[in-house]
Amino acid sequence: MDRRLELHEELCDILGSRNVYFQPPESVKLKYPCILYNLSTVDTWRADNKLYLRKNRYLITVVDKNPDSKIHEDILYHFPLCSFDRSYTVDNLNHRVLVLYY
């Protein structure tokens, strides 16, 4: 299975619903709470002029009407290479942005 699809399924399991969207177009009507994610970059590490390690870095945004939502914490605990980046509110929706290497 494709690694991104594996990530998608893990995020669905954590959220407990299928409201997980990979790079959704503006035409998609989101259902809350939801998780949005996109590929941010691919980091590579080299040693001895050879590719040593390559990891995809994703930006994950948890969007929820509940300001006390703990979904982002569940993601942080689930993935060892995940960190909290920032938090903001737009149109009474709370956004928690995480950085995940997967």
Describe this structure in words.
The chain is an alpha+beta fold. It has one domain (3-101): 2-Layer Sandwich (STM4215-like), CATH 3.30.2000.10. The protein has 2 helices and 5 strands. The chain has helices spanning 3-15, 71-78; strands at residues 20-22, 34-47, 50-64, 82-90, 93-101. The chain is elongated, with a radius of gyration of 15 Å. The chain starts with a helix and ends with a strand.
| Name of the CATH superfamily | Phage tail protein-like
Task: Extract low-pLDDT stretches.
Answer: none
What is the domain tally?
Answer: 1
CA gyration radius, whole angstroms: 15 Å
Report the principal-axis shape.
Answer: elongated
Mean pLDDT equals 94
| Major β-sheet profile | 5 strands, mixed
Helix content: 10-25%
